[in-house]
Specification:
This protein has 215 residues and is of the alpha+beta class. The protein has helices at 90-93, 98-118, 125-136, 161-164, 177-184; strands spanning 2-5, 8-14, 17-19, 30-32, 38-41. The protein has five helices and five strands, in the order βββββααααα. It has a three-stranded antiparallel beta sheet, with no helix packed on it.
């Protein structure tokens, strides 16, 4: 709980939690430890966690379908079950990161702009292509024809903690040319060449010249 004195925040009170024993389904619950409350003094409290949507804001007449988790049901272009209504972020995905919500807001804006211009929501090539590959199971059946080499992954080098306060050198070191070359040899060549037919060209940018072919 947030502690307030004279109309200003002075701290936040927290309680330590612990996991219970697994239930019949194998899942553990989380419960507070009685008497473990502690206070962190502060002047400001910023809510930077995923927010839970209140599904009661919608009525059946709104035509907005919800998932079994209480989030808004959307397609890959951020459209909902009601035409002209778009959704994204925590309201559609559930609690995620701020960066993901911002990225979805930008992508949803493109979809809305396209809808207002053409009455058709935007087409996102990368998302659609991933769905086609997954649905057709084009990658799952592929198996390597030769044993895979086992090579240890490159380990980043860090400046000793004792030396960090004595200079302004980078804490994390970069690869040498030889280390980068060796790391590149770990490539398992797991990429696949897949051809699909889509309604719109699968491109990440607009052609740079009129009538330019895009591959």
């Amino acid at each position: 709980r947030i502690l307030v004195e004279n109309g200003r925040v002075v701290g936040i009170e927290l309680v330590r939690m612990h996991q219970t024993e697994p239930d019949a389904s194998g899942r553990r619950a989380v419960k507070p430890l009685p008497g473990s409350e502690f206070i962190i003094p502060c002047s400001y409290v910023i809510a930077a966690i995923g927010q839970k949507m209140d599904p009661t804001v919608f009525t059946p007449e709104d035509g907005i379908a919800l998932t079994r988790w209480g989030t808004i049901e959307t397609k890959e272009n951020f459209t909902t079950t009601r035409e002209g209504v778009f959704a994204g972020g925590d309201a559609a995905t559930g609690p995620k990161t701020l960066i993901l919500a911002m990225a979805q807001g930008e992508a949803a804006a493109k979809s809305i702009d396209q809808y207002l211009k053409t009455r058709e929501p935007a087409f996102f090539p990368r998302t659609r292509l991933s769905q086609i590959i997954a649905k057709a199971k084009l990658v799952g059946a592929c198996r390597p024809t030769r044993p895979l080499p086992i090579e240890a992954r490159y380990t980043s080098k860090f400046l000793d903690p004792e030396a960090r306060s004595a200079n302004w050198e980078e804490v994390e070191g970069a690869m040498t040319i030889e280390e980068a070359r060796q790391e590149s040899q770990r490539c398992m060549r797991c990429m696949r060449l897949i051809a699909v037919t889509t309604r719109n060209p699968v491109v990440e940018h607009e052609p740079t010249a009129p009538n330019a072919a895009t591959f």
